[in-house]
Amino acid sequence: METKDRYILQFNSDQEIALETKQLKIFYGDYEAISAADLQIPRFKITALIGASGSGKSTFLRSLNRMNDGIANVQGQIWYRDLDLNTKQIDVYAMRRQIGMVFQRPNPFPKSIYENITFALERHGITDKKQLKERVETALKQAALWDEVKDKLNKSALALSGGQAQRLCIARAIALQPDILLLDEPASALDPISTAQLEETLINLKEHYTIVIVTHNLPQAARISDYTAHFSQGTVIEFNDTKDMFTQPKVALTNEYISGDFG
Amino acid sequence: MNAKRNDKIATGLLYTIAGIVILILVLLLGFIIIRGLPQLSWSFLTSPSKAFSSGGGIGIQLFNSLYLLILTMLISLPIALGASIYLNEYAKPGMITNAVRTMIEILSSLPSVVVGLFGFLLFVVQLNLSFSILSGALALTVFNLPLLTRSIEGSLKAISNDQRNGGLALGISKWETVTKIILPAAVPSIVSGVILSAGRVFGEAAALIYTAGQSAPALNFANWNPFNIDSPINPMRPAETLAVHIWKINSEGIMPDATAVSAGSAAVLIIVVLLFNLLARWLGRALYKCLTAA
Prior knowledge:
heterodimer, A: alpha/beta, Rossmann fold, seven-stranded mixed sheet, four-stranded antiparallel sheet, 11 strands, about 35% helix, B: mainly alpha, MetI-like fold
Protein backbone atom coordinates (compact mmCIF):
# COMPACT_ATOMS: atom_id res chain seq x y z
CA MET A 1 0.00 0.00 0.00
CA GLU A 2 1.28 3.42 -0.94
CA THR A 3 1.60 5.71 2.06
CA LYS A 4 2.35 9.37 2.69
CA ASP A 5 3.81 11.31 5.60
CA ARG A 6 0.73 13.39 6.01
CA TYR A 7 -2.79 13.49 4.68
CA ILE A 8 -5.22 16.27 5.54
CA LEU A 9 -8.67 16.16 4.00
CA GLN A 10 -9.80 19.48 2.51
CA PHE A 11 -13.53 20.04 2.48
CA ASN A 12 -15.46 21.22 -0.53
CA SER A 13 -17.15 24.57 -0.26
CA ASP A 14 -20.55 22.95 0.29
CA GLN A 15 -19.49 21.63 3.71
CA GLU A 16 -19.98 24.28 6.35
CA ILE A 17 -16.92 24.68 8.58
CA ALA A 18 -17.57 25.35 12.27
CA LEU A 19 -14.02 25.92 13.36
CA GLU A 20 -10.72 26.10 11.59
CA THR A 21 -7.20 26.29 12.97
CA LYS A 22 -4.38 27.74 10.93
CA GLN A 23 -0.76 27.17 11.87
CA LEU A 24 -1.74 26.60 15.49
CA LYS A 25 1.31 26.22 17.72
CA ILE A 26 1.13 25.57 21.43
CA PHE A 27 4.04 25.89 23.84
CA TYR A 28 4.41 24.89 27.46
CA GLY A 29 7.36 27.09 28.31
CA ASP A 30 9.97 26.09 25.74
CA TYR A 31 8.34 22.78 24.98
CA GLU A 32 6.38 22.74 21.76
CA ALA A 33 3.29 20.60 22.40
CA ILE A 34 1.60 21.36 19.10
CA SER A 35 3.56 22.36 16.01
CA ALA A 36 1.57 23.94 13.25
CA ALA A 37 -1.77 22.19 13.29
CA ASP A 38 -4.16 22.99 10.44
CA LEU A 39 -7.56 21.47 10.86
CA GLN A 40 -11.08 22.16 9.66
CA ILE A 41 -13.91 21.07 11.94
CA PRO A 42 -17.05 20.44 9.88
CA ARG A 43 -20.37 21.70 11.24
CA PHE A 44 -22.98 19.28 12.65
CA LYS A 45 -20.55 16.39 12.53
CA ILE A 46 -18.63 14.51 15.14
CA THR A 47 -14.90 14.88 14.74
CA ALA A 48 -12.73 12.55 16.78
CA LEU A 49 -9.19 13.43 17.79
CA ILE A 50 -7.12 10.30 18.33
CA GLY A 51 -3.48 9.69 19.04
CA ALA A 52 -1.09 8.32 21.60
CA SER A 53 -0.77 9.89 25.06
CA GLY A 54 1.28 13.05 24.82
CA SER A 55 0.51 13.55 21.13
CA GLY A 56 -1.09 16.89 21.97
CA LYS A 57 -4.72 16.16 21.14
CA SER A 58 -6.10 17.30 24.52
CA THR A 59 -3.87 20.37 24.47
CA PHE A 60 -5.20 21.15 21.00
CA LEU A 61 -8.80 20.69 22.12
CA ARG A 62 -8.39 22.85 25.20
CA SER A 63 -6.93 25.68 23.18
CA LEU A 64 -9.98 25.79 20.90
CA ASN A 65 -12.06 27.56 23.57
CA ARG A 66 -9.05 29.18 25.20
CA MET A 67 -9.03 26.92 28.28
CA ASN A 68 -5.26 26.97 27.95
CA ASP A 69 -5.09 30.68 28.72
CA GLY A 70 -2.49 31.22 31.40
CA ILE A 71 -1.29 27.61 31.12
CA ALA A 72 0.17 27.39 27.64
CA ASN A 73 1.27 29.87 25.03
CA VAL A 74 -0.97 29.48 21.99
CA GLN A 75 0.11 30.98 18.66
CA GLY A 76 -1.64 30.94 15.31
CA GLN A 77 -5.25 31.37 14.34
CA ILE A 78 -8.51 29.76 15.37
CA TRP A 79 -11.25 30.85 12.99
CA TYR A 80 -14.85 30.78 14.11
CA ARG A 81 -17.53 32.71 12.22
CA ASP A 82 -14.99 35.06 10.62
CA LEU A 83 -13.42 35.77 13.99
CA ASP A 84 -9.94 34.79 15.06
CA LEU A 85 -10.52 33.48 18.58
CA ASN A 86 -6.86 33.57 19.44
CA THR A 87 -6.70 37.34 19.82
CA LYS A 88 -6.82 39.66 22.81
CA GLN A 89 -10.03 41.37 21.70
CA ILE A 90 -12.11 38.20 22.07
CA ASP A 91 -14.36 38.10 25.14
CA VAL A 92 -13.49 34.57 26.22
CA TYR A 93 -16.51 34.27 28.49
CA ALA A 94 -18.93 35.13 25.71
CA MET A 95 -17.02 32.86 23.33
CA ARG A 96 -17.17 29.88 25.69
CA ARG A 97 -20.91 30.21 25.75
CA GLN A 98 -20.78 29.28 22.06
CA ILE A 99 -18.01 26.73 22.43
CA GLY A 100 -18.71 24.58 25.45
CA MET A 101 -16.53 21.89 26.96
CA VAL A 102 -17.00 18.67 28.89
CA PHE A 103 -14.11 17.08 30.71
CA GLN A 104 -12.66 13.67 31.35
CA ARG A 105 -13.88 13.39 34.93
CA PRO A 106 -17.53 14.28 35.49
CA ASN A 107 -17.51 17.55 37.43
CA PRO A 108 -21.04 18.41 38.51
CA PHE A 109 -21.14 21.40 40.83
CA PRO A 110 -22.03 20.67 44.44
CA LYS A 111 -25.52 21.98 43.85
CA SER A 112 -28.83 20.41 42.93
CA ILE A 113 -29.32 18.85 39.49
CA TYR A 114 -31.60 21.73 38.54
CA GLU A 115 -29.15 24.40 39.72
CA ASN A 116 -26.29 22.73 37.91
CA ILE A 117 -28.04 23.60 34.67
CA THR A 118 -29.59 26.93 35.60
CA PHE A 119 -26.44 28.29 37.21
CA ALA A 120 -24.66 29.23 33.98
CA LEU A 121 -27.92 30.27 32.32
CA GLU A 122 -28.61 32.76 35.10
CA ARG A 123 -25.06 34.09 34.89
CA HIS A 124 -25.67 34.69 31.18
CA GLY A 125 -28.76 36.71 31.91
CA ILE A 126 -31.63 34.23 31.61
CA THR A 127 -33.67 34.73 34.78
CA ASP A 128 -37.23 34.04 33.70
CA LYS A 129 -38.35 31.05 35.80
CA LYS A 130 -40.48 29.50 33.09
CA GLN A 131 -37.79 29.81 30.48
CA LEU A 132 -35.21 28.29 32.84
CA LYS A 133 -37.48 25.35 33.52
CA GLU A 134 -37.93 24.74 29.80
CA ARG A 135 -34.22 24.96 29.16
CA VAL A 136 -33.51 22.45 31.93
CA GLU A 137 -36.02 19.99 30.57
CA THR A 138 -34.83 20.33 26.97
CA ALA A 139 -31.19 20.01 27.92
CA LEU A 140 -31.80 16.96 30.09
CA LYS A 141 -33.87 15.33 27.36
CA GLN A 142 -31.19 16.00 24.76
CA ALA A 143 -28.61 14.52 27.08
CA ALA A 144 -30.89 11.48 27.60
CA LEU A 145 -30.99 12.04 31.34
CA TRP A 146 -34.50 13.43 31.81
CA ASP A 147 -36.27 10.15 32.55
CA GLU A 148 -33.74 9.23 35.20
CA VAL A 149 -33.73 12.52 37.10
CA LYS A 150 -37.05 14.25 36.44
CA ASP A 151 -38.35 13.33 39.90
CA LYS A 152 -35.25 14.43 41.77
CA LEU A 153 -34.24 17.69 40.15
CA ASN A 154 -33.77 19.28 43.56
CA LYS A 155 -31.52 16.51 44.84
CA SER A 156 -27.79 16.98 44.91
CA ALA A 157 -26.00 16.31 41.63
CA LEU A 158 -23.25 14.65 43.63
CA ALA A 159 -25.50 11.67 44.27
CA LEU A 160 -25.61 10.78 40.55
CA SER A 161 -23.63 7.86 39.15
CA GLY A 162 -20.56 8.61 37.04
CA GLY A 163 -22.41 8.12 33.76
CA GLN A 164 -25.38 10.19 34.88
CA ALA A 165 -23.07 12.92 36.19
CA GLN A 166 -21.26 13.05 32.85
CA ARG A 167 -24.54 13.34 30.96
CA LEU A 168 -25.54 16.10 33.39
CA CYS A 169 -22.32 17.91 32.48
CA ILE A 170 -23.26 17.57 28.82
CA ALA A 171 -26.77 18.81 29.60
CA ARG A 172 -25.29 21.73 31.49
CA ALA A 173 -23.16 22.61 28.47
CA ILE A 174 -25.91 22.27 25.85
CA ALA A 175 -28.42 24.20 27.97
CA LEU A 176 -26.47 27.27 26.89
CA GLN A 177 -27.28 26.27 23.30
CA PRO A 178 -23.71 26.48 22.11
CA ASP A 179 -22.53 25.97 18.55
CA ILE A 180 -19.76 23.61 19.34
CA LEU A 181 -19.22 21.04 22.05
CA LEU A 182 -15.67 20.04 22.91
CA LEU A 183 -15.36 16.75 24.77
CA ASP A 184 -12.12 15.69 26.40
CA GLU A 185 -12.20 11.90 26.81
CA PRO A 186 -15.70 12.12 28.25
CA ALA A 187 -16.18 8.37 28.57
CA SER A 188 -12.81 7.35 29.93
CA ALA A 189 -14.03 7.31 33.54
CA LEU A 190 -17.25 5.44 32.73
CA ASP A 191 -18.23 1.77 32.67
CA PRO A 192 -19.17 0.15 29.34
CA ILE A 193 -22.92 0.56 29.81
CA SER A 194 -22.64 4.26 30.67
CA THR A 195 -20.22 4.64 27.77
CA ALA A 196 -22.73 3.14 25.36
CA GLN A 197 -25.43 5.50 26.66
CA LEU A 198 -23.09 8.44 26.31
CA GLU A 199 -22.19 7.51 22.74
CA GLU A 200 -25.84 7.26 21.80
CA THR A 201 -26.42 10.67 23.36
CA LEU A 202 -23.60 12.17 21.32
CA ILE A 203 -24.86 10.69 18.06
CA ASN A 204 -28.28 12.23 18.72
CA LEU A 205 -26.71 15.56 19.61
CA LYS A 206 -24.89 16.07 16.35
CA GLU A 207 -28.15 17.07 14.73
CA HIS A 208 -27.89 20.37 16.60
CA TYR A 209 -24.27 20.65 17.60
CA THR A 210 -20.81 20.37 16.19
CA ILE A 211 -18.91 17.93 18.35
CA VAL A 212 -15.19 17.49 18.75
CA ILE A 213 -14.20 14.56 20.93
CA VAL A 214 -10.81 13.45 22.15
CA THR A 215 -10.74 9.74 22.77
CA HIS A 216 -8.29 6.97 23.45
CA ASN A 217 -10.90 4.44 22.59
CA LEU A 218 -10.43 3.70 18.88
CA PRO A 219 -13.58 1.58 18.47
CA GLN A 220 -15.43 4.50 20.02
CA ALA A 221 -13.98 6.92 17.48
CA ALA A 222 -14.91 4.50 14.72
CA ARG A 223 -18.45 4.05 16.08
CA ILE A 224 -19.51 7.61 16.62
CA SER A 225 -17.37 10.01 14.59
CA ASP A 226 -17.78 11.21 11.03
CA TYR A 227 -14.25 12.48 10.73
CA THR A 228 -11.09 11.56 12.55
CA ALA A 229 -7.86 13.44 13.08
CA HIS A 230 -4.80 11.48 14.08
CA PHE A 231 -2.32 13.40 16.20
CA SER A 232 1.25 12.28 16.47
CA GLN A 233 4.03 14.12 18.26
CA GLY A 234 2.32 17.46 18.28
CA THR A 235 0.95 17.55 14.80
CA VAL A 236 -2.01 16.27 12.79
CA ILE A 237 -0.62 13.62 10.49
CA GLU A 238 -3.89 12.38 9.10
CA PHE A 239 -7.35 13.82 8.88
CA ASN A 240 -10.00 12.03 6.92
CA ASP A 241 -13.47 10.59 6.80
CA THR A 242 -13.61 8.14 9.73
CA LYS A 243 -14.59 5.16 7.57
CA ASP A 244 -11.78 5.81 5.13
CA MET A 245 -9.26 6.33 7.87
CA PHE A 246 -10.11 3.13 9.70
CA THR A 247 -10.32 0.99 6.57
CA GLN A 248 -7.61 2.52 4.38
CA PRO A 249 -5.33 4.76 6.37
CA LYS A 250 -3.20 6.88 4.08
CA VAL A 251 -0.35 7.44 6.50
CA ALA A 252 1.85 4.60 7.71
CA LEU A 253 1.87 5.81 11.32
CA THR A 254 -1.92 5.90 11.40
CA ASN A 255 -2.01 2.35 10.11
CA GLU A 256 0.35 1.28 12.88
CA TYR A 257 -1.63 3.15 15.51
CA ILE A 258 -5.08 1.88 14.61
CA SER A 259 -3.88 -1.67 14.10
CA GLY A 260 -2.24 -1.60 17.51
CA ASP A 261 1.38 -1.85 16.45
CA PHE A 262 2.15 1.42 18.14
CA GLY A 263 1.50 3.08 21.49
CA MET B 1 5.44 -15.31 58.29
CA ASN B 2 7.86 -12.57 59.22
CA ALA B 3 5.91 -9.91 57.36
CA LYS B 4 2.76 -10.90 59.17
CA ARG B 5 4.47 -10.75 62.57
CA ASN B 6 6.04 -7.38 61.80
CA ASP B 7 2.69 -6.04 60.74
CA LYS B 8 1.18 -7.18 64.04
CA ILE B 9 3.98 -5.53 66.03
CA ALA B 10 3.63 -2.29 64.06
CA THR B 11 -0.13 -2.26 64.47
CA GLY B 12 0.22 -2.87 68.20
CA LEU B 13 2.77 -0.09 68.48
CA LEU B 14 0.56 2.40 66.66
CA TYR B 15 -2.40 1.47 68.86
CA THR B 16 -0.24 2.03 71.95
CA ILE B 17 0.92 5.45 70.75
CA ALA B 18 -2.62 6.48 69.91
CA GLY B 19 -3.70 5.20 73.31
CA ILE B 20 -1.07 7.29 75.09
CA VAL B 21 -2.18 10.42 73.27
CA ILE B 22 -5.80 9.82 74.18
CA LEU B 23 -4.86 9.00 77.77
CA ILE B 24 -2.94 12.27 78.20
CA LEU B 25 -5.85 14.18 76.74
CA VAL B 26 -8.43 12.46 78.90
CA LEU B 27 -6.34 12.94 82.05
CA LEU B 28 -5.79 16.61 81.31
CA LEU B 29 -9.41 17.33 80.45
CA GLY B 30 -10.64 15.18 83.32
CA PHE B 31 -8.37 16.94 85.82
CA ILE B 32 -9.48 20.41 84.74
CA ILE B 33 -13.15 19.55 84.56
CA ILE B 34 -13.34 17.51 87.78
CA ARG B 35 -11.56 20.26 89.68
CA GLY B 36 -13.51 23.05 88.07
CA LEU B 37 -17.00 21.68 87.64
CA PRO B 38 -17.98 21.92 91.36
CA GLN B 39 -17.18 25.65 91.28
CA LEU B 40 -19.59 26.33 88.46
CA SER B 41 -22.91 27.90 89.18
CA TRP B 42 -25.12 30.46 87.51
CA SER B 43 -23.87 33.19 89.83
CA PHE B 44 -20.23 32.23 89.18
CA LEU B 45 -20.85 32.53 85.44
CA THR B 46 -22.62 35.87 85.68
CA SER B 47 -21.36 37.86 88.66
CA PRO B 48 -18.35 40.19 88.50
CA SER B 49 -15.04 39.10 89.98
CA LYS B 50 -13.82 40.19 93.40
CA ALA B 51 -10.22 41.15 94.05
CA PHE B 52 -9.98 40.78 97.82
CA SER B 53 -12.90 38.71 99.08
CA SER B 54 -14.19 35.30 98.10
CA GLY B 55 -17.32 34.55 96.14
CA GLY B 56 -16.34 36.44 92.99
CA GLY B 57 -17.49 35.28 89.55
CA ILE B 58 -16.27 35.55 85.99
CA GLY B 59 -19.28 37.13 84.30
CA ILE B 60 -17.49 40.17 82.90
CA GLN B 61 -14.43 38.17 81.83
CA LEU B 62 -16.61 35.67 80.01
CA PHE B 63 -18.46 38.45 78.23
CA ASN B 64 -15.17 40.20 77.41
CA SER B 65 -13.75 37.01 75.91
CA LEU B 66 -16.76 36.51 73.68
CA TYR B 67 -16.97 40.17 72.65
CA LEU B 68 -13.27 40.30 71.88
CA LEU B 69 -13.58 37.11 69.86
CA ILE B 70 -16.41 38.53 67.77
CA LEU B 71 -14.54 41.77 67.18
CA THR B 72 -11.37 39.90 66.23
CA MET B 73 -13.27 37.72 63.78
CA LEU B 74 -15.02 40.74 62.27
CA ILE B 75 -11.63 42.27 61.52
CA SER B 76 -9.62 39.21 60.57
CA LEU B 77 -12.13 37.13 58.62
CA PRO B 78 -12.63 39.50 55.64
CA ILE B 79 -8.89 40.10 55.38
CA ALA B 80 -8.04 36.40 55.65
CA LEU B 81 -10.73 35.53 53.11
CA GLY B 82 -9.44 38.08 50.63
CA ALA B 83 -5.84 37.06 51.14
CA SER B 84 -6.52 33.36 50.74
CA ILE B 85 -8.70 33.84 47.66
CA TYR B 86 -5.92 35.90 46.15
CA LEU B 87 -3.22 33.39 47.06
CA ASN B 88 -5.08 30.31 45.92
CA GLU B 89 -7.06 31.55 42.93
CA TYR B 90 -5.32 34.56 41.47
CA ALA B 91 -1.66 34.71 42.48
CA LYS B 92 0.68 33.45 39.80
CA PRO B 93 3.41 31.19 41.13
CA GLY B 94 6.57 33.21 41.48
CA MET B 95 8.87 35.15 43.75
CA ILE B 96 6.24 37.47 45.23
CA THR B 97 3.69 34.76 45.95
CA ASN B 98 6.37 32.62 47.55
CA ALA B 99 7.52 35.56 49.63
CA VAL B 100 3.97 36.23 50.82
CA ARG B 101 3.49 32.56 51.74
CA THR B 102 6.79 32.46 53.61
CA MET B 103 5.89 35.60 55.52
CA ILE B 104 2.51 34.18 56.47
CA GLU B 105 4.21 31.04 57.71
CA ILE B 106 6.71 33.01 59.76
CA LEU B 107 3.93 35.17 61.13
CA SER B 108 1.93 32.11 62.14
CA SER B 109 4.80 30.75 64.20
CA LEU B 110 5.37 34.04 65.99
CA PRO B 111 5.07 33.54 69.77
CA SER B 112 1.87 35.16 70.98
CA VAL B 113 3.69 37.10 73.71
CA VAL B 114 5.73 38.79 70.97
CA VAL B 115 2.51 39.64 69.16
CA GLY B 116 1.24 41.07 72.45
CA LEU B 117 4.29 43.28 72.95
CA PHE B 118 4.16 44.38 69.32
CA GLY B 119 0.48 45.22 69.82
CA PHE B 120 1.33 47.14 72.96
CA LEU B 121 3.91 49.27 71.16
CA LEU B 122 1.89 49.84 68.02
CA PHE B 123 -1.76 49.94 69.03
CA VAL B 124 -1.63 50.92 72.71
CA VAL B 125 1.25 53.40 72.62
CA GLN B 126 1.78 54.65 69.05
CA LEU B 127 -1.84 54.70 67.91
CA ASN B 128 -2.91 55.80 71.36
CA LEU B 129 -5.70 53.24 71.62
CA SER B 130 -4.69 52.56 75.27
CA PHE B 131 -5.51 49.24 76.96
CA SER B 132 -8.74 48.49 75.20
CA ILE B 133 -10.79 45.81 73.54
CA LEU B 134 -9.90 47.37 70.20
CA SER B 135 -6.16 47.10 70.90
CA GLY B 136 -6.73 43.51 71.98
CA ALA B 137 -8.76 42.70 68.90
CA LEU B 138 -6.10 44.20 66.62
CA ALA B 139 -3.35 42.24 68.37
CA LEU B 140 -5.41 39.07 68.12
CA THR B 141 -5.95 39.82 64.43
CA VAL B 142 -2.18 39.85 63.95
CA PHE B 143 -2.08 36.56 65.83
CA ASN B 144 -5.04 35.02 64.04
CA LEU B 145 -4.66 36.30 60.49
CA PRO B 146 -1.88 33.98 59.31
CA LEU B 147 -3.50 30.90 60.83
CA LEU B 148 -6.88 31.77 59.38
CA THR B 149 -5.43 32.61 55.96
CA ARG B 150 -3.64 29.29 55.78
CA SER B 151 -6.69 27.39 56.92
CA ILE B 152 -8.99 29.08 54.38
CA GLU B 153 -6.40 28.66 51.64
CA GLY B 154 -6.31 24.96 52.50
CA SER B 155 -10.09 24.78 52.23
CA LEU B 156 -10.02 26.41 48.79
CA LYS B 157 -7.15 24.23 47.64
CA ALA B 158 -9.15 21.13 48.56
CA ILE B 159 -11.77 22.01 45.93
CA SER B 160 -10.91 20.10 42.77
CA ASN B 161 -9.65 22.01 39.74
CA ASP B 162 -12.35 20.22 37.77
CA GLN B 163 -14.81 22.58 39.42
CA ARG B 164 -12.88 25.65 38.28
CA ASN B 165 -12.62 24.28 34.73
CA GLY B 166 -16.31 23.41 34.83
CA GLY B 167 -17.24 26.99 35.64
CA LEU B 168 -14.88 28.56 33.12
CA ALA B 169 -15.95 26.17 30.34
CA LEU B 170 -19.54 27.38 30.75
CA GLY B 171 -18.42 30.92 30.02
CA ILE B 172 -18.67 31.96 33.66
CA SER B 173 -16.11 34.58 34.65
CA LYS B 174 -13.30 33.69 36.96
CA TRP B 175 -14.65 35.93 39.71
CA GLU B 176 -18.07 34.30 39.56
CA THR B 177 -16.56 30.84 39.35
CA VAL B 178 -14.62 31.59 42.53
CA THR B 179 -17.43 33.28 44.43
CA LYS B 180 -20.37 31.20 43.28
CA ILE B 181 -18.86 27.72 42.87
CA ILE B 182 -15.55 27.39 44.67
CA LEU B 183 -16.37 29.45 47.76
CA PRO B 184 -19.75 27.82 48.49
CA ALA B 185 -18.19 24.40 48.01
CA ALA B 186 -15.48 25.37 50.49
CA VAL B 187 -17.77 27.07 53.02
CA PRO B 188 -18.26 24.05 55.30
CA SER B 189 -14.55 23.53 55.66
CA ILE B 190 -13.95 27.30 55.97
CA VAL B 191 -16.51 27.50 58.76
CA SER B 192 -14.86 24.61 60.58
CA GLY B 193 -11.51 26.38 60.23
CA VAL B 194 -12.93 29.68 61.48
CA ILE B 195 -14.51 28.08 64.54
CA LEU B 196 -11.37 26.12 65.37
CA SER B 197 -9.30 29.30 65.13
CA ALA B 198 -11.95 30.97 67.30
CA GLY B 199 -11.13 28.37 69.93
CA ARG B 200 -7.47 29.38 69.81
CA VAL B 201 -8.33 33.08 70.00
CA PHE B 202 -10.69 32.44 72.89
CA GLY B 203 -7.97 30.77 74.93
CA GLU B 204 -5.26 33.29 74.10
CA ALA B 205 -3.79 35.19 77.06
CA ALA B 206 -0.26 36.33 76.28
CA ALA B 207 -1.22 38.54 73.33
CA LEU B 208 -3.86 40.29 75.44
CA ILE B 209 -2.05 41.02 78.71
CA TYR B 210 -0.41 44.12 77.25
CA THR B 211 -3.17 45.11 74.83
CA ALA B 212 -6.64 44.51 76.23
CA GLY B 213 -5.34 45.00 79.75
CA GLN B 214 -5.74 43.14 83.00
CA SER B 215 -8.63 44.95 84.58
CA ALA B 216 -12.30 44.30 84.24
CA PRO B 217 -14.15 47.46 85.22
CA ALA B 218 -17.76 47.02 86.23
CA LEU B 219 -20.17 47.00 83.34
CA ASN B 220 -23.71 48.20 83.17
CA PHE B 221 -25.50 45.64 81.04
CA ALA B 222 -28.43 48.01 80.64
CA ASN B 223 -26.28 50.55 78.83
CA TRP B 224 -25.75 49.70 75.14
CA ASN B 225 -24.36 53.04 74.06
CA PRO B 226 -20.92 52.09 72.69
CA PHE B 227 -19.48 55.47 73.70
CA ASN B 228 -20.21 55.14 77.43
CA ILE B 229 -17.34 53.84 79.50
CA ASP B 230 -19.44 51.32 81.42
CA SER B 231 -21.22 50.02 78.32
CA PRO B 232 -20.41 46.37 77.58
CA ILE B 233 -19.98 47.07 73.88
CA ASN B 234 -17.66 50.06 74.24
CA PRO B 235 -14.56 48.91 72.33
CA MET B 236 -12.34 51.49 74.00
CA ARG B 237 -12.62 50.13 77.54
CA PRO B 238 -9.97 47.89 79.08
CA ALA B 239 -11.13 44.30 79.23
CA GLU B 240 -9.62 41.37 81.05
CA THR B 241 -10.58 38.13 79.32
CA LEU B 242 -11.12 34.73 80.84
CA ALA B 243 -7.69 33.41 79.86
CA VAL B 244 -5.97 36.53 81.17
CA HIS B 245 -8.02 36.23 84.35
CA ILE B 246 -6.74 32.68 84.92
CA TRP B 247 -3.17 33.82 84.35
CA LYS B 248 -3.63 36.76 86.69
CA ILE B 249 -5.20 35.01 89.66
CA ASN B 250 -2.60 32.30 89.44
CA SER B 251 0.27 34.77 89.44
CA GLU B 252 -0.96 37.50 91.77
CA GLY B 253 -4.48 36.64 92.94
CA ILE B 254 -5.04 37.57 96.58
CA MET B 255 -8.68 36.60 96.96
CA PRO B 256 -9.08 33.76 99.52
CA ASP B 257 -10.77 31.46 97.00
CA ALA B 258 -8.23 32.10 94.20
CA THR B 259 -7.64 28.38 93.57
CA ALA B 260 -11.34 27.68 93.25
CA VAL B 261 -11.95 30.64 90.94
CA SER B 262 -9.00 29.62 88.81
CA ALA B 263 -10.21 26.02 88.60
CA GLY B 264 -13.70 27.12 87.71
CA SER B 265 -12.47 29.57 85.06
CA ALA B 266 -10.24 26.92 83.51
CA ALA B 267 -13.16 24.52 83.31
CA VAL B 268 -15.34 27.15 81.65
CA LEU B 269 -12.57 27.93 79.16
CA ILE B 270 -12.09 24.28 78.26
CA ILE B 271 -15.81 23.64 77.97
CA VAL B 272 -16.33 26.66 75.70
CA VAL B 273 -13.46 25.58 73.43
CA LEU B 274 -14.91 22.07 73.41
CA LEU B 275 -18.27 23.50 72.43
CA PHE B 276 -16.58 25.46 69.63
CA ASN B 277 -15.12 22.23 68.28
CA LEU B 278 -18.41 20.36 68.38
CA LEU B 279 -20.14 23.36 66.81
CA ALA B 280 -17.50 23.44 64.06
CA ARG B 281 -18.21 19.86 63.09
CA TRP B 282 -21.93 20.12 63.29
CA LEU B 283 -22.15 23.44 61.47
CA GLY B 284 -19.69 22.29 58.79
CA ARG B 285 -21.78 19.21 58.08
CA ALA B 286 -25.08 21.06 58.21
CA LEU B 287 -23.84 23.78 55.87
CA TYR B 288 -22.48 21.24 53.41
CA LYS B 289 -25.86 19.54 53.28
CA CYS B 290 -27.64 22.83 52.91
CA LEU B 291 -25.35 24.26 50.22
CA THR B 292 -24.99 21.15 48.11
CA ALA B 293 -28.59 20.03 48.43
CA ALA B 294 -27.17 16.63 49.41
